[in-house]
Amino acid sequence: MTKSKYTFHMKRKTLLGLVLLSTVSFISCKQEKKADPVVSPSTEQTATPQPETAVDTVALKKQIEQEKETLSKPYNEDEDAQAKLNELVAQAKKEGKYVFVQAGGNWCIWCLRFNDFVQKTPELKQIVDQNFVYYHLNYSQKNKNKAVFNAYAPNARGIGYPFFFVLDGNGEVTNIISSGELEEGKGYSLEKVKQMFIDQAPKK
User: Fold this and answer.
1) Which of 4, 108, 193, 201 could link 131 by a cystine bridge, Cβ 3.0 to 4.6 Å?
2) Which has the closest alpha carbon to 175: 145, 199, 151?
3) Is pTM, for the whole model, over 0.85?
């Protein structure tokens, strides 16, 4: 092979090599690009906290606090609950009634709503007054009444507040009731609450 032919042959191989290298590099970049993760709009929304949610939560808390201000506070944190229950059981036995205990606290909006609902609904208040001596058993950071809860409803606090238990004339627990099944919207169902009181009343 002459020198000129050899030089031409080497230039041709070099040119082909450069073209091949460029092609491989182009394909490799495309593959890396395809491998990049794609973040969908829904993923971004999930990962990023929405300011509206925080605003709604603050507004809801404010609304609840304002509602609490309009409701009576029937729970007495300073009361000797066991002594009061003993007194009410004796009264109930004398009158042929049961003691209906609503456990909760003035911090609990659903507790205050239930009390307000019963007191302001004549149909319910009549049933209560005829069959029960009503008591609000306090549970709060200031006074948890541990001994009383352990004596009458040791496992009931897990069902949430308010919850109820009923004592007969001998101070024995006849039933423990969750308020969750009585709820309706932001309040309570008249028919369910009415039936609950009827079912728990002493048989006369």
Assistant:
1) 201
2) 199
3) no
For 95-121, how does the pLDDT look when each residue is reduced to its tens digit (9 = 90+)? Answer: 999 999 999 999 999 999 999 999 999
Place of tokens 């007495």: 76
Strands (E), 22-153: 98-104, 132-138
**Residues 2 and 9 sit within 8 Å (Cβ to Cβ):** no
Which helix H or strand E contains 44, and what residues bound it?
helix 41-47
For strand 173-178 and strand 163-167, is the pairing parallel, antiparallel, or unpaired? antiparallel
158/22 Cα distance (integer angstroms)? 70
Find out whether 79 and 139 touch, Cβ atoms under 8 Å.
no
The C-alpha angle 164, 113, 151, rounded to 5 degrees, equals 20
Q: Which residue type, as a one-letter code, is found at position 196?
A: M
Copy the structure tokens of residue 149: 């809860």
21 is written with which tokens?
């290298």
